Amino acid sequence: MVATNTNYDRKSEVKAFDETKEGVKGLVDAGITEIPRIFHRPPESDDHYHINSPSSDSEPTRFSIPVIDLQGLDRLDSPTKRKEIVAKVGEASETWGFFQIVNHGIPVGVLEEIKDGVRGFFELDTQVKKELYTRDPFKPVIYNSNFDLYSAPVTNWRDTFMCYVAPNPTKPEDLPQVCRDILVEYSMQVMKLGRLLFELLSEALGLKPSHLNDIDCSEGLVILGHYYPACPQPELTMGTSNHADNDFLTILLQDHIGGLQVLHQGKWVDVPPVPGALVVNIGDLLQLISNDKFKSIQHRVLANYVGPRISVASFFCTGMLPSTKLYGPIKELLSEDNPPKYRETTVRDYVAHFNDKGLDGTSALMDFKL
After folding, report:
1. Is the pLDDT of residue 52 over 90?
2. CA distance 64 to 331
3. pLDDT digits (tens, 9 = 90+) for 208-228
4. Does domain 91-368 fall into CATH 2.60.120.330?
5. 112 CB-contact burial (10 Å; exposed 0-12 / middle 13-18 / buried 19+)
6. What angle do CA 165, 168, 169 make, to 5 degrees?
7. What is the pLDDT of residue 44?
8. Between 20 and 30 A from 236 (CA), which of 40, 167, 191, 314?
9. Would you give the distance in Å from CA 57 to the centre of its chain?
């Protein structure tokens, strides 16, 4: 798959790509028909097997990601409904680490508008975007291609912008005008939804509903807009390499194109776009504090001939805050039969370790095992 040209200097090619400040979209706009070597996946990752796609050696699909309907959750006269939903959320978090939610309370119009806003940003004039291109994590808005460009073994076919929502929100005037108003609106809605999900997850762990919110799992929120341009050679690269998330919880909005896959029982399973739905997944930090009860699962995004694919990822995490607060397995969940499996860490140290490692297909959690 990958040529063995001994003159290949990955480091200088990565640097040259970064210095254009135009990202993957810049390559597409330039009309390339062959993708640069830095994007080539290593040959050992040639496992583009879709469990949910027709294939001569595949049995009929047995797997589909759970879809949970939150309708009726807010009805005070129906405690059984809440119990049912909590049970489904718990089961999905233990067995899949992923689920989709419908009737979550965020209007479809808001979902459509945030996707349009993200697309609008990436389709701005190149010179306008270049002014925001940075690798400084303390800038209010960060736009670049591949956060781990210099540490990961392979470059992904994806551009991203990121802004902080909580606890120290990016000032509205610092947000790109093309998506400013909708980013403010969407982030308020996601924050509210996140707090609700942490209540359900707390109950699914057998804790009081406020437990995860009380220990600040919902304190930090970062929103990322991803742009995956159409790729002339999608079989050679990935939209996002397989990885698990370095946060407590992720709420993802994907568009109609698809390409997200989850590793379930050793198979890559498609997460099909469901109109109006949001994808929720458990992050490494929630696996750590739940002492492996909830699972943070490897997932990836395939590159595609069609595009651009748009997604909006909301990460509940305080990775950039200089907090000394330690997180370890929750004491109430531990017993003689269930001793702690992880050492304590600050969120910042965990995120720094994850970012230094880059998306290399292995779990950063393993380095925190006792």
Report:
1. no
2. 34
3. 999 999 999 999 999 999 999
4. yes
5. middle
6. 40
7. 59
8. 314
9. 31
H or E element that contains 268? strand 267-270
Q: What is the CA radius of gyration of the chain?
A: 20
Residues for the chain: how many in total? 370
Count of H-run helices and E-run strands, the chain = 9, 14
Going from N- to C-terminal start, the domains of the chain cover 91-368
SS3 128: helix
Percentages helix, strand, coil for the chain (3-state, rounded to 5) are: 35, 20, 45
168 Cβ neighbours under 8 A, 6+ residues apart: 321
Residue 18 burial (CB count, 10 A): 18
Nearest C-alpha neighbor of 153 from the set 37, 233, 232 = 37
- How many CB atoms sit inside 10 A of residue 34's CB? 8
Phi, psi dihedral angles at 346 (to 5 degrees): -85, 155
Least confident of 7-11, 29-33, 297-301, 308-312: 7-11
The CA angle 144-268-101, to the nearest 5 degrees, is 75
* Distance, CA of 135 to CA of 23 (rounded, Å): 13
- DSSP structure class, residue 171: P
Instruction: Report which residue type is found at 238.
Output: M
- Residue among 226, 270, 238 nearest 61 (CA): 270
Q: What is the pTM of this model?
A: 0.93
Residues 6+ apart with CB under 8 A from 274: 67, 100, 102
Q: What residue ranges in 20-169 does DSSP mark as E strands? A: 67-69, 98-102, 141-144, 159-166
**Other Cβ atoms within 10 Å of 25 Cβ, number:** 20
